[in-house]
Amino acid sequence: MVFITSSITAIYKHVCLQVKYTAPWRQEGDVSAASRSDASEQVRSLAWSSFACLVLHAKLYIAQETTISTSQLDASRQEPQSPDTANAETRSASDGSRLLRLQIVDGTGQERRLDIHVDPTTTVAQLKDGNYLGVDFAVGWRLRCVFRGRLLSETEPLGRLPSGAFLQCYLQRPSTVESADGIDIDPLLVAWARLAGVGRNSFPPEKWQDVVFHCAFIIGLAVAWSAYLGSPDVFDAFGRLALRLITISWVSFSAFLSSQGLGFRV
Asked: Which stretches of sequence are listed as region Disordered (predicted)?
């Protein structure tokens, strides 16, 4: 809005000056065809000069806004740190511990932020044992720590991370329950699968069963195709008979349901 207002003001001033000093109808003398031609030339030149004035004003406005934004960015970078951050970094530097900023995600949609101080020799596994996160890992929780998109192993020391590093901690709940036979059952399975003892640890059928099934299926298709090529009339007659039988069965079944008041509702 400021740019539009200032642009209109600059163009208006420029047009007023041009009309005041260079317009041919301001000159004394008769108004002839030559003077009218000069007037049209002056109007065209006035339009081009107004456009040039607008472009120049736009460049000056962009340069001014760029300078202001750069100065604001430099000022924000030079802002002093908060007292809590400064004290935490000073304390971590004095006693040799590492300041870690944790983002704890437990899978419930809620996140927690926690700042802790750990010894440089502390590993990810010891992070669980030290109860830094306020979670009882004895009930089956699992911890996954990610730093800058890289998954940290449980034996990796946290001293390799810089002080003040942002560490993402993902907590995984135990997702299986143990059946009476000692098989881990996935609670997301349907009831009949859990009753049958099907769990996550049940292995798929052996490879030789897959090979036998696919070979039998291929042989059956080959035999059927060769028989059809040998006598297509027989297969066409069988297809028509099967279609009629299925149609009659479906009509009879629908009529029976209608007589019982259980017809299909479309």
From this structure: 72-95
> Does 246 fall in a domain?
yes
Please check whether residue 125 lies inside any domain of the structure: yes
C-alpha 16: how far from its chain's center? 56
Q: Write down which residue in 143, 172, 201 finishes a domain.
A: 172
**Rounded to whole angstroms, how far apart are CA atoms 201 and 176?**
10
Q: Whole domain around residue 34: which residue ranges? A: 2-77
Global pTM value: 0.33
pLDDT tens digit string along 229-247?
888 887 788 888 989 999 9
Residue 83 within any structural domain of the chain: no
Compute how many other C-beta atoms are within 10 angstroms of the C-beta atom of residue 198.
Answer: 16
Question: Please, are residues 15 and 46 in contact by the beta-carbon 8 Å criterion?
Answer: yes
209-226 pLDDT, tens digit per residue, is 788 888 999 998 888 888
Does residue 201 lie in a domain region? no
